[in-house]
Design goal:
mainly alpha
């Protein structure tokens, strides 16, 4: 039993650290962004008997001009933390150990955290800079179809693992395979998003 689950057992501490880091990041983001969100609602006159002339004037401004003074602080902190994590990943990868998913070592944990923070930074920046009527199509489709997307991605992963020896694939072929994998998933999300389809599983 232990030999069949040795990867899960050895990687458990690392994934527990990832879970705790994700919870801490979520709480920190909530604490940092809630005051800014309240300030935006106050400027827009939400909760009052009606929109004031000032709130109408504020709402007429470009989205980034209204939100940037309030959100640039948390965004700058996220960027600084993410750059620090990438620097730590580089140090650990060069002088300690390469990232390893099987044992979920410190390099892998920091790499996942840095990548996740980079995605959050890009999403927050897009929310600030894009007009209110525009949202990333793939993000909307993924939000509506998380479970089907997860199942399709797992089926594709299983198909890849069954069709080739992934440990012996060259770096060039592996990059091409990952690019194809992501391209198929993005094409599926684009198809669902353009048709406003929500799959039920």
């Amino acid at each position: 039993m232990l030999s069949l689950n040795k990867e899960g057992i050895t990687s458990l501490p690392g994934f527990v650290c990832l879970s705790l880091a994700g919870s801490a990041l979520g709480q920190g983001l909530r604490a940092a962004l809630q005051p800014a969100c309240r300030q935006v609602l106050l400027q827009l006159g939400e909760g009052s008997s009606g929109p004031s002339p000032k709130s109408v004037e504020v709402a007429a401004q470009p989205r980034w001009r209204m939100l940037w003074p309030l959100m640039s602080g948390p965004l700058a902190v996220l960027v600084a933390v993410d750059l620090t994590m990438w620097a730590l990943v580089l140090v650990l990868d060069t002088w300690v150990e390469r990232p390893c998913r099987r044992c979920a070592n410190a390099t892998y944990v920091l790499w996942v955290c840095a990548t996740s923070l980079l995605v959050l930074v890009l999403l927050l920046a897009s929310q600030l800079l894009l007009p209110s009527g525009l949202r990333p199509l793939l993000l909307q489709a993924a939000s509506r179809n998380m479970l089907p997307l997860f199942l399709v991605a797992n089926l594709m992963t299983g198909a890849v693992n069954l069709s080739m020896d992934t440990l012996r694939v060259s770096d060039f072929a592996a990059r091409g395979l990952v690019a194809t994998y992501l391209g198929v998933l993005c094409a599926l999300l684009a198809c669902l998003g353009t048709r406003s389809i929500k799959l039920r599983v």
